[in-house]
Design a protein that fits this description.
Elements (H helix, E strand, L loop, with lengths): L1 H18 E4 L3 E7 L2 E7 L3 E4 L5 E7 L3 E4 L3 E4 L5 E12 L2 H7 L3 H21 L3 H5 L15 H4 L4 H6 L10 H16 L4 E13 L4 H68 L3 H19 L13 H7 L4 H8 L9
Length: about 350
């Protein structure tokens, strides 16, 4: 009799154990009977009861879940292939529809891969790369002092207008994300899923085009460097030309000044000589005589051969060499002829 009571008590405990179940704060439960849902979803936490051995418990998470897609390559509107890495946050708001259509979280993530991947491709294909990368329209870039318009546009206006300026955008990355979110949220509603948010995690160039992009960027930087270098060489040539011109002008002015001073000195010396030798006829004759001697000294050397006529002054002078002191004495003016 005691054994029978023990067996009945054990069976009763086993039945009661299978009849009760608990629902956590982060869970919601769908009861299925022979694989089909029965009743309303259980969303309140606590101790619950079911038909033992016939009904099964299917627990569904009601917390905010994450979806982290794998990077995928896709083209932009301006024909640039980029690798886009997206992530999203979602939760189950209709557990019955979720259970009927998806059953588990793995199926939900697979369906999100398809929907979000498709909508991302559509959005990226409709926008240029700059629209996907940039966020704000009116952002003012930081400019290098070397690239400011005051330093560059003075010599080449087109350079100052292109260097250090951001390409204008019409939408920006946030608007593109909102477009993807709006299109994908409508499609996931039928699965009992609410899409909460999506964001671009990373946007990179495709591995096959990265070298070409970098080469183009390097080429553009080199062109800018060459342009600055040519402008610098032109400015240096202009400065050297101005320096040469100023130097020639200074030298010409200095030469003119020197000649003016030399001319003034010669005129002053001539004036002094004239004043000294034009006081009387004797002084004039003496001056003519001394100048003639200086001329003879400069034109006659020991190797000089002269052919003179008998009536020339030089012949007479050479003929009278013996009496030269008397001639000099006669030609010299008296002491009273010179100023004291």
């Amino acid at each position: 009799m005691n054994r029978l009571l023990i067996i009945v008590a054990g069976l009763l405990a086993f039945v009661l154990f299978n009849a009760f179940y608990t629902v956590g704060e982060a869970q919601q439960v769908i009861l299925t009977q022979f694989g089909k849902p029965v009743g309303e979803p259980v969303t309140d936490a606590g101790l619950k009861m079911k038909v033992p051995f016939i009904q099964d418990i299917n627990r569904i998470d009601k917390r905010i879940l994450e979806w982290d897609g794998s990077p995928s390559d896709m083209p932009t509107k301006d024909k640039l292939y980029i690798s886009v890495d997206l992530f999203a946050r979602w939760r189950i708001v209709d557990p019955l529809a979720y259970f009927l259509r998806l059953r588990d979280e793995r199926s939900a993530l697979s369906r999100l891969d398809d929907i979000l991947g498709s909508e991302t491709r559509n959005a990226v294909a409709k926008h240029e790369l700059i629209e996907i990368v940039r966020t704000t329209k009116g952002r003012v870039p930081l400019k290098d002092v070397v690239l400011t318009e005051s330093d560059v546009a003075n010599t080449n206006p087109s350079v100052g207008a292109s260097i250090g300026e951001l390409v204008p955008i019409s939408k920006g990355r946030i608007v593109v994300e909102q477009e993807i979110f709006k299109a994908a949220a409508e499609k996931v509603k039928v699965f009992g899923v609410e899409l909460l948010d999506i964001r671009f995690k990373r946007i990179n160039y495709n591995a096959s085009v990265e070298p070409k992009i970098y080469e183009r960027m390097i080429s553009e930087r080199r062109q800018i460097a060459e342009r600055f270098r040519s402008e610098g060489n032109g400015e240096a040539a202009r400065i050297r030309g101005n320096m040469t011109r100023d130097l020639d002008r200074i030298q010409s002015e200095a030469y003119r000044k020197v000649e003016e001073i030399r001319g003034e000195g010669d005129a002053k010396a001539a004036e002094i000589y004239a004043n000294a030798y034009n006081q009387n006829p004797a002084a004039t004759k003496f001056y003519a005589f001394t100048r003639t001697l200086d001329a003879y000294k400069s034109i006659m050397t020991p190797d000089t051969s002269l052919i003179l006529s008998t009536d020339s002054d030089v012949f007479k002078l050479l003929k009278d060499m013996g009496s030269m002191p008397n001639a000099v004495q006669n030609a010299a003016p008296p002491p009273s002829a010179f100023p004291q």
